Amino acid sequence: MTHFAAASSMASVQRPDEEWDTVAEEYGPRIEPFTSLFCEPLLDAAAEALGAPLEGVAVLDVGCGTGALAVAACGRGALVTGTDVSSSMVECTAARAEAAQLPISARVADGRSLPLEYSGSFGLALSNFGSIFVQPASESVEEMLRCVRPGGVVGLTAWGGHHETEAFQLIPTLARNLFGDPAPAVTPAVGPPLPPPVPPAVTPAVTPAVTPAAIPTVATAVAAAVTPAVPPNVTLPCQAPPLASCLAIPEHRLQGSVQSLCELLSSAGLESVRVIGPVTRQLRCAGAEVFWDRFALAAPGTRRLLAGLSAVQHAALKAAVLEALRARFGDGEVQLPAAAYVAVGVAKRPPPVRIGTAGFAGVAGHWAGKGVFPPGVRTARGDAALDFYQVGGRLQYRSSAGAGLNTSLGASE
């Protein structure tokens, strides 16, 4: 069995920002069409947790990439600020916003240390497959929490485990079957998880020719395309334990599950945490070559894997991937599933603090000058006696006959 060649400098020393800079041009057309399928479920969950539509809400998009989530949020009337560790990704988002005349600003920022001036500035802080690549992810979530107002919402998406992301397992599984364990020199940076090795006791075998009709999944096509053969009871995606290290690539991407995401958001101090999923979508590519190019040109993890191969190994892996896919799908569209989880939580609200009772018009005279009352509130309420409360950064009121606090009037000083 041939082992991996020594890793190139790209695989061993490239920083996360450099990795994403390298793929930014290819990311939009090749990766975003799939990752963007999870934007609407994230925005739906965030709006439900916020208890209001996103019209006029300030949204922070952490790890904005080429702007898919930012554009989707703008479609709901939000005002979006995007950040990304990659300057090339930020440039793509900014150019996209300018071309479409969308209210999106973008700047370079590490998810572990967002700008200090963002503190308490947003109604929502969201990340669509961005924060999961921050190490540790908890630091990104804590930063997002710092940036939202009391009662604001933090939300993110995370890919499921190996058994839930078949679309991502084909290339690394075939690489291991072909080449075995990599040389110790392979020490990649941040990247997606790869499945565990095939047990060494596998005996090489010759698999007879098969037809697409006889192949229920890509997993069996892998067995037909690779020597040594995969045992018949092994299917894709591989059942890998959490935080497994495969092909010597450590699990730097947060693996999504109901339990892991509940713990992540709750530990950061968020309340009313909710995790939705698995949410499954089909990764669709026009053919086997397009599938290969998607990962080889635009996925940092796959590019790192390929950087550790010789030219002969690279060609052999590509041939095996194409053969496996064509055995399943022929020359038609490739469709493979991958699932993600959507997690949202609410920033704690401080308890109401009573600040006094007064005629509405009198109090309004002070607060309206600061622009905190919506149009028409004074004329609607007249001079009725009201109890006013400071709740976080907002002024709320209650009449003497009212039960509970009424709707917030707006931001305070």
Could you describe the 3D structure shown?
The structure is a single chain. The protein is an alpha/beta fold and 413 residues long. The protein has 15 helices and eleven strands. The strands form two sheets. It has a seven-stranded mixed β-sheet with strand order 3-2-1-4-5-7-6. A four-stranded antiparallel β-sheet has the order 8-9-10-11. α2 packs parallel to α6, α2 packs antiparallel against α11 and α8 packs across α13.
Q: For the CA atoms, what is the radius of gyration?
A: 25 Å
Q: Biggest sheet, in brief? A: 7 strands, mixed
> What's the number of extended β-strand segments?
11
Low-confidence stretches: 2-12, 183-251, 357-361, 367-385, 390-394, 399-413
| H/E element order | HHHHEHEHEEHEHHHEHHHEEHHEEE
Give me the secondary-structure category: alpha/beta
Q: What is the spatial order of strands in the main beta sheet?
A: 3-2-1-4-5-7-6
What global shape is seen?
A: globular
Strand portion, in percent?
15-25%
